[in-house]
Write a structure and sequence with these properties.
Layout (H helix, E strand, L loop, with lengths): L5 H9 L1 E2 L7 E8 L10 E4 L4 E6 L4 E6 L4 E6 L5 E7 L4 E6 L4 E6 L5 E6 L7 E4 L4 E6 L3 E5 L5 E6 L7 E3 L5 E6 L4 E6 L4 E7 L4 E9 L4 E8 L1 E7 L5 E6 L4 E7 L4 E6 L3 E9 L2 E9 L7 E4 L4 E6 L8 E7 L2
Antiparallel strand pairs: 1-26, 2-29, 3-4, 4-5, 5-6, 7-8, 8-9, 9-10, 11-12, 12-13, 13-14, 15-16, 16-17, 17-18, 19-20, 20-21, 21-22, 23-24, 24-25, 25-26, 27-28, 28-29
């Protein structure tokens, strides 16, 4: 097959494509993360430099990957279970949240020299950046989101009743939606007032870790692990619109606004792809095989790529699988 290497052919054969001759995700290349051991957590992207940052939690490093060359250009060591990572383009800085010691460590995005350590106390985890205000939000501890300005000064602390996992920010409004799996809820926060506006239950579904937002259609996608399903909530009221089964052990979900698709990566060993017919109806169009344990990923619309993190297993090195999104 033209344009597919051996890995691509294997992935295409492994993917279960439902009723189609082509897959919505084509494996473009596999980038080795040689020497990286253990679990890999979240990813971030620098669009200007075309660099991917990989939080190698079990390896206590962040791997810096040049997407154009397909090579690791730097490994930032001495970290403490890095979980969340984000690139701050206006300052050219890299922020890394560490679960083991509760710190957020900030590095120069070009030289990777350490600049500052922010101490949150415990389990610093997911990070989000508000492009409009340049504020940065970090989930941590048994129930908190710390808010920092662009110069890394802490300006607020939002208290929650459980540890926050994935959270999403509106671009055209002040709200932030936060998964609280230990209390089986989604918290709705006004991020200008730093106040919780509402809490929406996930009912019988538990372990709601990943989350994505379709702001234009007012739909919030909450992925639960027990059972493995996607809950589609009305983003205005929290009403359950519909739900459908998905890949197991998911840790990331993304909404592709241009193609109106949902990508769910799961440690069961696959990426499930759903097509949005309209705001209330969704159909599964593909399940593309990956590797058991490959549950974290990052969709970057600027380059139309889905990056899937594959941990080291046996004699196979850890890697990033780069999928091109097809029409």
């Amino acid at each position: 097959m033209p344009g597919l290497n051996g890995f691509g052919v294997a992935a295409l054969l492994a993917g279960v494509v439902l009723g189609q001759l082509s897959t919505p995700l084509r494996l473009e290349k596999t980038i080795s993360l040689a020497g990286v051991k253990g679990r890999i957590d979240h990813l971030a992207f620098d669009a200007d430099g075309e660099r991917l940052f990989v939080a190698a939690l079990g390896n206590n490093t962040v791997e810096v990957v040049d997407i154009r060359s397909g090579k690791v250009t730097r490994s930032i060591g001495g970290l403490a279970e890095p979980q969340g990572v984000i690139y701050q383009p206006e300052k050219k800085r890299l922020w890394v949240a560490n679960g083991n010691d509760g710190t957020v460590r900030i590095f120069d995005g070009q030289t990777f020299q350490p600049l500052r350590i922010l101490k949150l106390g415990d389990d610093a985890d997911n990070i989000r950046r508000d492009a409009a205000t340049e504020r940065i939000f970090v989930g941590y501890g048994s129930g908190g989101i710390a808010v920092f300005d662009s110069d890394a000064n802490k300006i607020a602390d939002i208290k929650l009743d459980a540890h926050p996992e994935s959270f999403q920010l509106e671009k055209n409004g002040p709200r932030m939606f936060v998964n609280l799996p230990h209390s089986h809820k989604v918290a709705v926060i006004d991020r200008t007032k730093y106040a919780v506006l509402a809490s929406w239950t996930t009912d019988d579904a538990q372990s709601n870790f990943p989350m994505a937002l379709d702001e234009a259609e007012g739909r919030l996608f909450v992925v639960c692990r027990s059972p493995a399903e996607v809950l589609v909530l009305d983003a205005g009221s929290g009403r359950l619109v519909t739900k459908f089964s998905t890949v197991g052990d998911s840790d990331d979900v993304f909404y592709d606004r241009e193609r109106k698709r949902i990508y769910v990566s799961g440690g069961e060993g696959a990426v499930a792809v759903y097509q949005q017919q309209d705001r209330d109806h969704y159909s599964k169009i593909a399940q593309v095989g990956t590797v058991k344990g490959a549950r974290t990923s990052l969709f970057v619309p600027e380059v139309n790529r889905l990056f899937v993190a594959v941990r080291q297993e046996g004699g196979d090195a850890a890697a990033i699988r780069v999928f091109e999104t097809n029409e």
